[in-house]
Amino acid sequence: MEPAFDAAVVQELRARGHEVTVEDGHGVFAFGGAQLVLRDGNHYIAGSDPRKDGQAVAY
Questions:
Q1: How confident is the model at residue 14 (pLDDT cuts 50, 70, 90)?
Q2: Helix (H) / strand (E) containing 3
Q3: Is 31's pLDDT higher than 90?
Q4: Most buried residue among 7, 35, 46, 48 by CB atoms closer than 10 A?
Q5: What is the model's pLDDT at position 25?
Q6: How far apart are CA 36 and CA 25, in angstroms?
Q7: Predicted TM-score (pTM) of this structure
Q8: Is 2 helix (H, G, I), strand (E, B) or coil?
Q9: Which SUPFAM superfamilies match (predicted)?
Q10: Number of Cβ atoms within 10 Å of the Cβ of 54
Q11: Distance of CA 43 to CAs 10, 38, 47, 49, 54, Å?
C-alpha cells in the first residue's frame, strides 16, 4: 500500500487476515498505474487509478 493510507486502515486490513506491505514513495508506486476488469459471474467490474490517464468504461 502507499504510505498515505491511514495507519488504522492498514491495521484493519491486517486484522482481517490480509498480508499488507506499506511501500515508501520511491518504490513500486513511484510510476505506473492500473486499469483492471474483473469478471464476476455474468457481470464485469472495472476500475482505473484516478491519478493516471485511464478510465473504466462499458459498451
A1: very high
A2: none
A3: no
A4: 48
A5: 67
A6: 22
A7: 0.53
A8: coil
A9: N-terminal nucleophile aminohydrolases (Ntn hydrolases)
A10: 14
A11: 29, 8, 14, 21, 21
d(C-alpha 50, C-alpha 47), whole Å: 9
Q: Which are the contacts of 8, defined by CB distance < 8 A and separation ≥ 6?
A: none
C-alpha span between 36 and 55 (Å, rounded): 10
**Core vs surface per residue 6-38: b (16+ CB within 10 A) or e:** eeeebeeeeeeeeeeeeeeeeeeeeeeeeeeee
Contacts of 34 (CB under 8 A, 6+ apart): 47, 48, 49, 52
Task: List the grid coordinates of 28.
Answer: 513500486
C-alpha cell at 59: 459498451
Give the residue among 47, 3, 51 at the shortest CA–CA distance from 31: 51
